# Entry
Amino acid sequence: MKIIYWSDFNCPYCYIGNTRLKKAINELNLDIKMEMKAFEVEPEESDEIATPMKNHYARKYGIPEFVAIDELKEIDEIGRQEGLNYDYSNSKITSSRNAHRLVKLASSKMDDELVENICEKLSRAFLCERKTLSDKEVLIEIGTSEGLNEKEIEEMLESDKYQVEVQIDEEDARLNSVNSVPFYFIEKGDETLAIPGALTTEEFKNALKDLISGDIEDKLE
# Structure
């Protein structure tokens, strides 16, 4: 089985959804190849200016700042219920483009575990540790902690390398009618199950079991 999914490190529900999905996979003892595709939920954000999340959230949804703070705290609590030490409400948002380019650099090494580890650390850095994803030192620290070459990361960040690959992922999202993330395509043989959103662990388990058993065909009729 293979799971192709669109995700963004700026999206709190992506980390929650991916964590739940991995729990489901582990509990079912499945061997599944994961492939992440880039999807920037905030493509207009700057590399240079880090905006406090409460200000960004209030502006984006047209709500008072005190309401935004309450809603962000609720998201933090959902993350913590999944064992993630969320501090999303106190984060500062920037562009995630360079973070996605770092993942593409990791993908070029043909090491699935390396890619998943870097994705995990990028999500944790922003959503739990209040680090900014456009900070080159943060990206270098994460990449080198998983064995990537520091000079190679620096050269990538100073160039346009992997920009096209990120854009292709985002174009693929549009072609597949993926308008929000997380979004998962679970493939088994000729069967593909599309799952939009962060299901619960139990819902992911049921979907995986139905796809494996073939029961999913009956439920889709």
The chain has ten helices and six strands. Residues 2-220 form a domain with the Glutaredoxin fold (CATH 3.40.30.10). Strands lie at 2-7, 33-38, 51-52, 92-93, 183-188, 191-196.
